[in-house]
Amino acid sequence: MSTQHWKEIVAQKRQQRTESIPKEWILTNLPSQDTLNVIDFPESCGLLTELDIQITNTEVTLLLEKLAQGTWSAVEVTTAFAKRAIIAQQLVNCLTEIFVDKALARAAELDAHLKTTGKVVGPLHGLPISLKDQINVKGVDSTMGYVSWAFKPATKNAVLADILEANGAVLYVKTNIPQTLMWGETFNHVFGRTTNPYNRNLTSGGSSGGEGALVALKGCPIGVGSDIGGSVRIPSAFNGVYGLRGSYGRIPYGGCVNSLEGQDSILSVLGPLSNSIGGLKVFVKSVVDQKPWFVDPLAVRKPWNEEEYQLIEHGKGEKLCFGILWDDGITKPHPPVIRGLEETKKALLAAGHQVVDWKPLNHGEFYKAAGSIWSAAAAEDFRVSSAPTGEPVIETMDLSYEDVDAPPTESIPLFRPNPNGISSYELWQVQRRKRDLRQEYLDHWNATAVVTDTGRPVDAIISPCAAYVAPPHGMNKSAVYTTIWNVLDYVALVVPTGKFVDPVLDAPRPPHEFYSSVDKENYEFYKPETFKDAPITIQVVGRTLEEEAVIGMAEIVDAALKAYSPKL
Amino acid sequence: MSTQHWKEIVAQKRQQRTESIPKEWILTNLPSQDTLNVIDFPESCGLLTELDIQITNTEVTLLLEKLAQGTWSAVEVTTAFAKRAIIAQQLVNCLTEIFVDKALARAAELDAHLKTTGKVVGPLHGLPISLKDQINVKGVDSTMGYVSWAFKPATKNAVLADILEANGAVLYVKTNIPQTLMWGETFNHVFGRTTNPYNRNLTSGGSSGGEGALVALKGCPIGVGSDIGGSVRIPSAFNGVYGLRGSYGRIPYGGCVNSLEGQDSILSVLGPLSNSIGGLKVFVKSVVDQKPWFVDPLAVRKPWNEEEYQLIEHGKGEKLCFGILWDDGITKPHPPVIRGLEETKKALLAAGHQVVDWKPLNHGEFYKAAGSIWSAAAAEDFRVSSAPTGEPVIETMDLSYEDVDAPPTESIPLFRPNPNGISSYELWQVQRRKRDLRQEYLDHWNATAVVTDTGRPVDAIISPCAAYVAPPHGMNKSAVYTTIWNVLDYVALVVPTGKFVDPVLDAPRPPHEFYSSVDKENYEFYKPETFKDAPITIQVVGRTLEEEAVIGMAEIVDAALKAYSPKL
C-alpha cells in the first residue's frame, strides 16, 4: 500500500499533464459547458493558422504524399495536429500523456533525413499518430486509468510503437480510457471523463474513447485503439469516424499493458481509427509489411494480400451481396440506427449490389459466453491492479460517480465481473461451447449461398454498431452488436454514414413486439433530443483474417453512401 | 452409469474389430512374441503379392503420379495398403477401426471416375490415408480409448476427413491411441497396447502411436495424428518416420473428438506422418489449397505460400545456418540421440551449410507451464469422460497395468493432472507467464543474427525428439524436447537419420555433471541392448506458421543426411 492517498497521486498526475501542454496553446476563449456541440470549435477558436487547418483537414493518403514530396514538412504537420489535439483536450478531455517536444524533435530529424537523402524513412513519414494509453512508449506512463500505475514510465516501446516509428510516424500524445478498459465509456480517477465532441452530454464511448473524440476533432490523422468487445468500434461509431477491428494477432499487441492478462480465449486486438478508410488501409498495410511476426510471437504470419484487397474472391467487387442485420433478436435499434441501415441499403442497391436480410443466430448466447469468459477472473485482476494505492474499482460510468464519496447511482455495467471467479473446468466448458457456436455461425453464413445471386455466400454483413447512437454518460449498457464479431473473430469496420440524428427523420416509431424488458427499456429510452447531433454509423463485417477484403468492401460501401447522398 | 460392466463392452468392441478384418488376411504364421523386430515381416509373410510390395514401397509423390496416370488403380493401391495394414495390426496392434469394404467401394468409384473423365478427383486421388482414432468418420466409432464412447458412431465426418475425401483420398482404417490422448505411449482398455515394430519390447510412442507403427510398417502412405505436446513427433521419432507438427490451426481440427476441450491456450494440432517429406508436403499443400478456413472457424486463413517453400526469406536455401540443440539443460540425451545430432551436423557442414550451437532458454519453465495449463482441469475432464461406464482412468503405461486388477507399479506419468484443478485466475497467471516466455524465446532467436554468416538469425533449429530413442513400455516419462515447440507454436518436423541404435557406436559414455536426479536417472537408464534396433531421428524446427519453409529446410537436411551417408 502506498503511503500517499490515491487522490494525492491523481492531483500530481493531473498537474503533470497540465504542465505538459505548451503554454501558448492554452485557450482562454473556451465555450461554456452548456455548449454541447464543439465539433467546429477548433477551426474557429483562432489558435490554428490557415495552414494548420488545411493540413488537419487533408485526407491521410494525400497528406502522406505531401509529406513525401516535402510540400509540408513533418514539423509543420506535427505542429498542426499537436495544436488541434491540445484544443481537443481542452474541449473533451481526451488525452492522458502529451509529449509534443519529443515529437517535434523527431519530426525535425525526419525533415533533415528527407532533405539529405531525398527519401522518406518509411510509408508513414512525418505522420503524427496518437496511441491509446495502454500502448507503451518508452519514458511515458501507461496508467491505463489505474492510479497505482502512475509515475511508472515504460522502459521500452510496445512492438507497434517501434514499427510505427520505423515507418516514419511521429508519436506525440496518448489518449484516455476507462479504468480496467472493460467499459464502453471513458472515465477513470486519474484523468477523468472524455466527452463526445458532437454533444458533450453524450459519451465518447470506450474503451478507446479518447481516440474516438480526438479523431473526430481532427486532432490526429490516425489513432490506435484496442478492441476486445467493441472498444475501437464503439468510439468510432459514437464519434462518427472510421475504425477497424481486425482479427486476433493481425496487428502486433506485444509490449502493451492490459486487463485480463493471460486470458487466451477472446483476445483484445489493436486497431486504427481515422477520418478515412485510406487511413485504416495505410495503417494496416504498413504495419503488416514490417512482418511483425518476426518480433511478436502472437502476431499472425500473414503478409498483406493485394489479391484479397482487390476482392478476387468476391467477384472482383463488381457485384457484391450484403446481408443486413436489422436487429439481433435481443434489442431493436433506435430510429437513427435503422435509418443508417436503410440509407446504406438504398445506396448499395443504387450502386448495383444485392442486399438480403441477415438473420442473427445465437447473438445472446455469444454475448453471455464472452461475459462468462472475461469475468472468470476479472474481479481478482481488477483488485490486484487497483490495490496498491487503495483506489476503488469503478462500478459505474454514471456522472454521479464523479463525486466518488457520494453513494453511486444504480447502474448496470457493460461487463460485471463475477466476484468469486470460476474454476478452470467451468471456464473450459464455456470456451468449448463458444467454439461450437462459432462453427454454427460459420455454417449459417455459408448456407446463405442459396439466397444470393452471386453463387457465393453473402460477401459481408452490414450491422448496427449498437442499438443506439452515442447515448448520455452512463447509459452505454450493452455491447452485443460489437462483441458478437469479437467472439467470432470476424473483421469489422465502422463506416460513418455522413448522417446525424434528425428530430424529424428520426422521430420515435410505434412500439414493436418487445423481445424482453431490456428491449422495452431501450425503446422507451429513445427521444431524438437526447441524442441531438449524434453521428450515425454502420459496421461492415467480413470473415476472420480478411482485413484486406473488408477494407476493399468498406470502400465500396463508403463510395456508395457518398454517391447516393453527396455532402455539400 | 451403464448397466453393463465396462469389461463386457471391451469384449464386444474387440470382437467387432476382429470381425472387421477380412478373413483371408488373417495370418497363421505370425512370429512368436519373442521376435522383437518385425519390421521386415510384412514382405516375407506371404500375404502380399509382388505388386502389393512394389506399391507399398513407392514414395508418395511417385505413387500419386502412378495413380493419376492409371498405372495402378485405386483399388489395387487400396488393397495393397489395406493388406499391409492388417498385417501390421497382427504384429503390433495399431488399429482401432477397420472399414476396408467401404474403402474398396470408394476406390472403385475413383477408378470409374478416372476412366470416364480422364481426370483425377483431386491431388490425393486413390491414396489410402489412415486417421488417428479421434478424427471422426461418419458411421465409425471415435472411442479415443474410452470404453464409454464405444458403439457411438460419428454422425458426420470431421472437416479434415471431408477435405481428404474431396481431394480423392481413400479412408480405410483408424489407429490406436492412449486413453485421454495425454500420454507419450499408446495403451487403452478398449484396444490394448501398440508396440514398436523395430522392437516390440519398446513403446510405439504416443499419443499417435498407432499411426507411427503403421507408417513404419508401410501399412499406409500417409497417416494423420494430432500433437499437443509431441503426439505426432514422439511416434514419428520412435518408429523412425517423418512427421510434422504445424502451427495452431494450419490444418483444420474441426469435428474431431478430443481431451481438454475448451482449453484455448496451448492447442492440439493435426499433422501428417509419412515415409517421405514428399508425403508431408502433398498432405499440407492439398489440405490448405482447399481453403479450410471457409468451413472451420479455427483454421488459419493462410494459403500455401510457394515463395516460403522456395526459402526466399532464407537466402533461397543456398547457405543456411542451423542451430543445434545438444541438450536442453534438463536431461542430456542418450548416446544414440547425440550421434544423430553429430551425424546431422557433419552432413550439413558437408553440404555447405553453417552449424552453430543452440542455447536452450527456460525449457523447463515452458514444460512446467504446459503441465499447469493442461492439468488446470484435466482431472475433471477425464473423470467426466470415463465415468459413464465406471472404467478407471489409466494412471501408468507400465506393462504391469495390463492386469488392471493388480496394484499398479509406481510410474511417473508424462502428464499428471492436478486432482483439484485450479481457479481461472491462477490459470490466467500461468498463461500470462507463458506469453512472456514466448516473447523472450523469440528475442533469443532473433539475437542469433550476430553469430551467423548469413546476416539472418539462425534459419532453423535441429533438436532431439526426446532424451532417448524409443524406450521400453512405461518408460517414456518426459516430453520436454517436443512440448517446448508446442508452447512456442513453432513448426517442427521429424526427420529419420537412417541410423539405428548400434551397440558399438552407441556405447555408454562416461557420466557427465548431472543437472538433477532426473538427469542422473536418465543417464543410468541407458544400455544399448535395452534400445536394440531403435531408429534415430531429429527434429527440424522453424518459426510459427512457417510450415512451407520448414518443409523446404527439412528436405535440405534429409538430402544432406542421405548424401553424407548413402543407404545401399
UniProtKB/TrEMBL annotation, chains A, B:
One Pfam family from the record: Amidase
GO MF entries: amidase activity
Enzyme class: hydrolase
Reactions it catalyzes: a monocarboxylic acid amide + H2O = a monocarboxylate + NH4(+)
Active site: 132 (charge relay system), 207 (charge relay system), 231 (acyl-ester intermediate)
Coiled coil feature spans: none
Domain Amidase: 76-550
Binding site for substrate: 181, 207, 228-231
SUPFAM superfamilies on file: Amidase signature (AS) enzymes
Keywords: Hydrolase
EC number(s) reported in the record: 3.5.1.4
Family assignment from sequence similarity: Belongs to the amidase family.
Name of protein: amidase
Species per Swiss-Prot/TrEMBL record: Pholiota conissans
Lineage, broadest ranks: Eukaryota, Fungi, Dikarya, Basidiomycota, Agaricomycotina
